[in-house]
Design a protein that fits this description.
Layout: H1 5-43, E1 61-69, H2 72-78, H3 83-87, E2 93-103, E3 106-116, H4 120-128, E4 138-139, E5 147-153, E6 157-164, E7 167-173, H5 178-195
Antiparallel strand pairs: 1-2, 2-3, 3-7, 4-5, 5-6, 6-7
Length: 196
């Protein structure tokens, strides 16, 4: 079976057109995938991105400069006497920020520290470590993280911790009422939403 020059030209044109459309389609799919990857990578650029932003919790703003620790030596500088707990559970990095807000019309301070422990099992081991100082803490079910608990220190202060993925989160506030516990929980849910 033989084709005329005209038929071959039409056939070649159709093949070229088809290949052009196929190329455009593949290129469009590639662009969509690149945008998805860029969006995912923009969600969490660093551990600092997990910190609660200034005034994200109504009435609570940054107090002082944040600190970052990218190795155990830097962490020891910031939390002298406690860094070895995190080191034995795979410490990678940490970020800390203090916040100032009012409870019962009095200024209170809340501190948030997020530790990247490398993986979820090491974050869980940190969470469960009795040396963290939360022996006797109450579980917070339906809250932040895979597991969460809090402790109240006789009207003086409270602490709340949880873990999710490779992160162990520690929050403390210089007051102990139901309202201050609710503020801690709001901060915890905010951070957990960024980790998810």
């Amino acid at each position: 079976m033989s084709f005329s020059l005209k038929e071959r030209t039409v056939w070649n044109f159709k093949i070229t057109l088809f290949m052009s459309y196929l190329g455009i389609f593949i290129f469009a799919l590639w662009l969509v995938q690149c945008e998805k990857n860029a969006a995912n990578s923009d969600q969490i650029l660093s551990i600092e991105d997990l910190l609660v932003k200034n005034n994200d919790i109504t009435g609570w703003s940054y107090e002082g400069a944040r600190w970052l620790a990218n190795n155990i030596s830097e962490l020891t500088t910031y939390i002298n006497g406690g860094a070895e707990i995190y080191q034995r559970h795979g410490f990678i990095e940490a970020a800390h920020q203090a916040y100032r807000g009012k409870i019962d019309n009095v200024d209170r301070q809340l501190k948030l520290t997020i530790y990247n422990q490398g993986n979820e099992s090491q974050a869980m081991a940190t969470y469960e470590d009795p040396d963290i100082g939360l022996v006797g803490a109450l579980d917070w079910n339906d809250g932040a993280g895979k597991e969460a608990h809090y402790i109240r220190y006789s009207g003086l202060s409270q602490a709340l911790t949880f873990y999710r993925n490779s992160y162990f989160v520690y929050l403390e506030i210089t007051y102990d009422t139901e309202e201050s516990l609710n503020i801690l929980k709001q901060f915890a849910l905010n951070v957990d939403g960024r980790i998810k």
